[in-house]
Structures are given as structure tokens and as C-alpha cells.
Design goal:
- With 281 residues, the protein is α/β, with parallel strands linked by helices.
- The protein has 9 helices and 14 strands.
- α8 crosses α9.
- The two termini are 39 Å apart.
């Protein structure tokens, strides 16, 4: 019988002593190695935010990532991203390949925190409107070391972008509807209609029916990835980095995808979040 056990789960250190379980908030410190065990249902935004949190709070020499391909994300990390500078991220597609340990210099984190947090464990998000200039500066230094892969860059080249355009990201989909998170598309149209008639929007949606509804019920010019495959991770990442080039953004409330586009932008984008968490389940 094991009398003592300790493991790290999201923001918590969980202890089990003689069968009694309790948890305390994680204390962040300099480590040599951090192992992140991503849940298979983590989306792209959740995964990148977890990596950025680890880089910010542990400043490790190496971040080992379990990057599942059988769940929400179906492409390898290496096929979508490359990492520059001091951000050394190693991908594993099987937990069995990883040498997982907890020690004074190494930490294994299950279900790592999938939204950006500050040193007190408080979430800092666009939806909450609490990303300070200090928070921005700290995290932007990490985001600038995360780049699109050559495959994604080649897909981005398929779109000719104007000098000024607005990113429009709508997260509505069948899976979000199960959790009460889909918003009325008319709310997005109301926001779109506040722009001058010559405004140009780049639209990113999860389903073609959503894109078609917006285009058919407004009188604006919309750009979209040509022949878009709505199930393609490459096309999703192309959308992401194109939205990061926008001068302004309209994003779905609570979506890490739109937030991630904002973080990848060269400068602080003017943005609007559409929706609330009032009906979330």
C-alpha cells in the first residue's frame, strides 16, 4: 500500500496521505523540465496556452508535451507550429514514450491550465477584460517565439489580404451547442453593421452554414480561406494567423481560438467579444 502520493493537476498540487486526499495551489518555481499531459479533448488554444503558462512560470530548459492526435486535434504539433528562441518544446504522441517524473527539477502536470493565468492563479482573458499591459508584455515575449509551420504558411499565401481588415471569428458549432455556448448569429451581424459599408472582414467559422448565414444576411465584403476544409487543422491554423494580421477583431466570447489570434498579433488589436456565459452549462 502506498502511504504517500503527490501529483500535479492543472493549478493544484494534490497530496494523498494514508488514503486522505487534499490539494493546495501550485507554487511556481524555476525547473529544468516540465512534462505537460494534454487532455485529448484540448483544442489548439488550450494546448498553446498550457505551453505558454509553463514557459512563463517555470522557465524550463525543456517542455515535454503529450500531444494527442486522436481527439479534438488530429495533426501533430510539429506539422502546425515551430518554436524559436529559448522555447524548447518536445512533442510526444504517446505517454508511454515519456519518462515522467516529479522532483526538485522536474514536474509532470496532468490537465495543465488551459487559459492564461497570473502568478496568483487568476485567469487573464479577453472575455474577462482583465489583460493588463504588464500581463500583455510578459506573455507576448513568449508568444513571439511560436510560429506557424511551413505547411500553414503556404496555406496562408492562398489569401490576398487588404491593408485594413477586421477579423471575424464565430465559434458556434454542434459541440458548443451541447454546452449552451452558441450565440445568436444576429448578435454578430449587429456588430458587423456598426462598421462602414466599405469595411472588409476575414471570417473564420467552424461550420460552413455559419459562414453562409453571415454572408447572406449582410451587405459587406467577406474574405475566407479558398476551398476551406472545415475539419482541417492546417486550415484552422491558417485562419488563426490570418486573424492575427487583422487591424481589429470580433471574437466569440469564451473561445480560446479568438483569444489566441489576438495574442499572436504584432500589436494589441482592438477587439470586441460577442456573447456572454449566461447560458453556459
Amino acid at each position: 500500500m502506498m502511504f504517500f502520493n503527490k501529483k500535479y493537476h492543472a493549478r493544484w498540487c494534490i497530496y494523498k496521505i494514508f488514503g486522505i486526499k487534499f490539494k493546495i495551489k501550485t507554487k511556481y518555481c524555476k525547473l529544468n523540465t516540465v512534462n505537460l499531459l494534454m487532455d485529448e479533448n484540448y483544442g489548439i488554444g488550450n494546448r498553446i496556452f498550457a505551453i505558454v503558462n509553463a514557459a512563463r512560470f517555470y522557465a524550463p530548459d525543456c517542455i515535454n508535451v503529450y500531444w494527442a492526435k486522436e481527439g479534438w486535434v488530429t495533426e501533430t504539433m510539429g506539422s502546425l507550429f515551430c518554436f524559436n528562441g529559448n522555447l524548447n518544446v518536445v512533442e510526444y504522441n504517446s505517454k508511454e514514450e515519456m519518462n515522467l517524473r516529479n522532483s526538485k527539477t522536474e514536474r509532470t502536470v496532468e490537465f495543465p491550465q488551459a487559459s492564461l493565468i497570473d502568478e496568483n492563479g487568476k485567469e487573464r482573458t479577453l472575455s474577462k477584460g482583465n489583460v493588463t499591459d504588464e500581463t500583455y508584455a510578459l506573455y507576448k515575449n513568449i508568444f513571439k517565439n511560436i510560429m506557424p509551420s511551413d505547411m500553414v504558411l503556404n496555406r496562408i499565401k492562398d489569401v490576398v489580404l487588404p491593408d485594413y481588415f477586421v477579423a471575424l471569428q464565430i465559434r458556434n458549432s454542434r459541440d458548443w451547442d451541447d454546452y449552451g455556448r452558441n450565440e445568436s448569429l444576429d448578435l454578430f451581424i449587429e456588430k458587423i453593421n456598426t462598421y462602414p459599408k466599405d469595411a472588409v472582414f476575414y471570417i473564420s467559422t467552424m461550420e460552413q452554414s455559419v459562414s453562409d448565414y453571415i454572408k447572406n444576411n449582410t451587405g459587406y465584403r467577406f474574405l475566407e480561406l479558398p476551398n476551406k476544409d472545415y475539419h482541417s487543422m492546417c486550415d484552422a491554423l491558417a485562419d488563426l494567423f490570418i486573424m492575427a494580421k487583422a487591424n481589429e477583431g470580433i471574437y466569440s466570447y469564451g473561445s480560446t481560438f479568438g483569444e489566441m489570434a489576438w495574442w499572436f498579433a504584432d500589436k494589441q488589436q482592438k477587439y470586441t467579444m460577442v456573447g456572454t456565459d449566461r447560458n453556459w452549462k
